[in-house]
Here is the input.
Amino acid sequence: MNLLKRYESDDFDESSSFDDAEYGEFEEVSTSKPFLVKAIAMILAVTGIAYGANIALTSGSGNKAEFGQGFITTSACDTNGGITVIPYAGFINDTGTGKFSLDSIILEKLDDTCVGNDFIIQVYGDTGNALTVSESATSANGGSYQTYDLARFYYKDSSTVLAYDSSYTDFDILTDTGAGSTEFTDDLGSIQITFDPDRTPTFADATQIRKITIQTVKHGS
Here is the structure.
């Protein structure tokens, strides 16, 4: 079984996350911006590297899971079997600063009872504070940047997620909400979080990641 799933990206939508206590206006994911590096590798089956063998994520129960396989975690809003968390990594082929980066996280098997909650996602290494996962430009032409060590979004309804500010982090509903689909009501909702900063160093280094945490709180708390 492949340790990593293939992941490829072209353009992503601009969205946002949250930085400590400074709440911005909610913005619905709608605009788009080109991804940082056009030469980003998909997942490393292309090169034949078995990447992920030494990158283990620790869930709350202490179990290990490799990149591309995911692990199950629980949250206050999800009471039916837990949420499956699947991280995806790729290689940024940037001269002098190329690295394996955390590109996205997919949350699967979301309960419909999680609607109305804010989700807060952070990643950690072996020790210390949460790792930086994205940024946003705070002046014209990217003259200065604000970095973010978490992604936060509001799960408004089965087909809508709202973000807090202008961080270059995208949130997309993957749940099939079309006519006849029961994914949402069967507690099989899914959301993709894509990290899309302008600068290579602002991507979290996938080789450092050991833990992903998810917190849920009632919206407005």
Notes: Confidence is low (pLDDT under 50) at residues 1-61. The chain has one domain: 11-218.
